[in-house]
Amino acid sequence: MGLLNLFRRKTFAHGVHPPEHKDETAHLPIRRMPFAPRMIVPLSQHFGAPAVPLVHVGQEVVRGEPIARADGFMSVPMHAPATGVIESIQLMPTARGPKTEAIVLKVHPGAEQRVLYGAPRDVDAMTPDEIVTAVQDTGMVGLGGAAFPTHVKLKPPKDYPIDTLVVNGCECEPYLTTDHRVMLEYTDELLAGIRIAMRVSGAKRAVIGVEDNKLDAVEAIQRKLPEDGSITVQAVTTKYPQGSEKLLVKVLLGREVPSGGFPYQIGVVVNNVGTLAQLGMLLPQSQGLIERVVTLAGPGVKKPGNYIIPLGTPLRFALDYVGYEGDATHIILGGPMMGNTVASLDVPVTKGVTGIVVMPEQERAPETPTIYPCIRCGRCLDACPVKLNPSQMGRLAAKRLYAEMQEKYHLNDCFECGCCSYVCPSNIPLVQYFRIAKAINRERAA
Amino acid sequence: MTPRIELRTSPHVKSPTTVAQIMRNVVYALLPICAWSVWQFGISALALILTVTAACLATERLFNWMGDRASSLSDWSATITGLLLALTLPPGFPLWMGAVGGFVAIALGKMLFGGLVYNVFNPALVGRAFVQAAFPVAITTFTPAFAPNRFVEFIPTTLTPPLQIPPSLTEWIATLGIDGFTGATPMGQWKFEGVVADTTSLFTGMATGSVGETSALLILLCGLYLALRRMMDWRIPAAMLLGAFITAGAFFLLDGDKYPAPLFVLFSGGLMLGAVFMASDMVASPVTPAGVWIYGLFMGVLTVIIRYFGGLNEGVMYAILLGNALSPLIESVTQPRIYGARKREAGQ
After folding, report:
1. Which of A163, A201, B59, B223 is 20 to 30 A (C-alpha) from A66?
2. Domains of chain B by residue range
3. Could A357 and B12 be called an inter-chain contact, meaning their C-beta atoms sit closer than 8 Å?
């Protein structure tokens, strides 16, 4: 569908164009948010094993000091977001729902923003393996939302030689502009991070993919690219979900990540621009990840913008700081297409939080829209970037034929981007059906 | 201050298009065609369109009531069925027969399957097939377009009392003083008399035919509206017309004396209306990208073959009904290749 697509910039097939709403924050410089009086640092903010506390209740910690260590290779440490005293280590609410173990830190009044912990070092003099260990010590995870440990991504299994680093600057979710601002304001750090990632992974070249609604970022990066052409930047069509790593790899390199596989199997490592900029900042200083850039936006936010927020800041504090409408009923962590709503404002900002989007009652889709049966209009097939058949899977889900959804219709290849639910004129919550189906299949397999 | 927080699963934004909106737009797209038919055939066409649509709506409501369900009239689909069915009938078709057709279309074509989206066939065509079998004479009795008194006087057959056989029109047509009208459509004239009508008058809608099938141009424009608003899959009518054109073209090249020019085939009879508004019925057509092309081409080819070699002069209705029947099969063999599919799975 869509004859016009032939004449546009590089892109993938299908996808959707939800209203972007990026204008309200894209032009605003990143600002720093003050410390909340009390920080909550969950031990599991990442994909992998939870960190193990290194501190005891009552212990004084300095901003940047490690307070929990990684538990094995598939894990990352945590660092103190502010100078203060450990108040407790207890179960606290998280965005995902169930309470998990967290270190609660009482921040000293007047605690300063400077990070005293850590010391400069020469990354160029380190071996790739030393860098991998150093990356793990920073506590870095994918800041694009997946929170997958960065050092694991940079060191794929030995049998897979890496030739290309793909740097993801698409930021296709509506409202979010953190990557955009980081590319503009931390261009040098980004390029430093890219060089580190290339060295560790062995990639000979790096390609930065940026959606063409951020051409100022493309220009900013272009001005600072090295002469040797090893790093390039490529504008791609603004279309959701362009920022999905598998789609971006296809668009930039023409290679497809095999179904159920990982990019390293086709010689590619993908990292988000925010992750690499942060890495380029922290690694030469031997510092840990203690804060991140978060977009606070949505119709319910009074002072929208991008803020550097210490990890562990409760949402209540962050939202009070920017001000929000009283009738706000949906607090979304991440963007509105894939983000999760939270049940409690005591949930802290964690490593994977890209944005906090506040939707008041009248702005969002109605809570219980009339769900019509599938009229087989085919919009979901034309939207699905993986080229699945959501229409058919939705009908199977209604009949609870979950196994057939996987066997015949590749259910597990769905990465839950939400395009099918977004376009469905019958208001069928297709993605939700698929999440449930996957969970039930997993349970049955176990 | 703690807001009243509600939990909800992503995505949290939604495209504004709804089922009712799509169906309403189909109705909008059909209105100009209805207007043209009233201009062409007068109050008889108007009465027929209103009667058939009312019968469809009443039937749908009756089934809602019998099934103890909420009214489903607001999704507009019964209105579409009514309009489409009326547009496929001859202008002087007795109103009571039209009402029977409307009842059958909704009752047998849709509600017995479970209502909207559960029907296997296009309901309007189910109704059309029924009246074709039940009233073979009335459905092939055509009257001239642009009759002088068409806005004040009904075609005599229109007001036939229920369960009565409609009167012969021969005398009435003679009083109109229209020369050379034989009571046949351009399709019929070609099939049984070997007369090929002027393609331009077929295209613009000056010739006679069923109520809404006469102007290929108008149907195309209305279809274009739907396609541009993305309320219709343009590939299906495109494939069906392409299939018909290629098949008709092949026959024309084989024997230009025996078979008419392909453009005549495209613009005559119900092909245009069927391709644009009935074959594209979402519920009864495949959803896969390759599937819609195969489905459309199949119906196009079949239309021409039935027209040329079948006992009837019109093949669109049966071609589409057969296409509907094959739709699930076509869909199951044309599942798209997914991103990252490994080679051995790609053929699935």
Report:
1. A201
2. 19-141+143-180, 183-332
3. yes
Question: Are residues B4 and A426, on separate chains, in Cβ contact within 8 Å?
Answer: no
| Prediction ipTM score | 0.85
Q: What is the pLDDT at residue A8? A: 54
HSE-up of B218 (CA within 13 Å, CB side)?
18
d(CA A377, CA B234): 12
Average pLDDT over every residue of A1-22: 73
Distance, in angstroms, between B69 CA and closest chain A CA? 14
Closest residue in B to A329 (Cα) is: B5
For residues B334 and B347, the answer to whether their CB atoms sit within 8 Å is no
Average pLDDT, chain A: 91
> Cβ A387–B336 below 8 Å, yes or no?
yes
Least confident span in A60-69, A214-223, B187-196, B261-270: B187-196
Q: Mind telling me how many Å the CA of B179 is from chain A's nearest CA?
A: 47
Report pLDDT digits (tens) over B27-55: 999 999 999 999 999 999 999 999 999 99
Domains observed in chain A = 3-28+120-285 (3.40.50.11540), 379-445 (no CATH)
Would you say residue A162 has pLDDT above 90?
yes
Q: Please report the pLDDT score of residue A367 as a whole number.
A: 53
pLDDT tens readout for residues B110-153: 999 888 888 889 999 999 999 999 999 898 888 888 888 888 88
H/E run at residue A284: none
CB contact under 8 A, B8 and A330: yes
Phi and psi angles of residue A109, each rounded to the nearest 5 degrees, phi first = -60, 135
- Nearest chain B residue to A333, by CA: B10
Query: Which residues, at least 6 apart from B103, have a Cβ–Cβ distance to it below 8 Å?
Result: B55, B56, B59, B127
Q: Do A427 and B18 make contact, defined as CB atoms within 8 angstroms?
A: yes
Out of A367, A389, A426, name the one closest to residue B335 (CB).
A389
Interface mutation target, options A265, A341, A391, A414, chain B, most CBs of B under 10 Å: A341
A35 token code pair = 């410390």
Look up residue B214 and give its two tokens: 């006469």
Decide the pairing of beta strands A231-236 and A205-211. parallel
How far apart CA A441 and CA B178 sit, in angstroms, is: 72
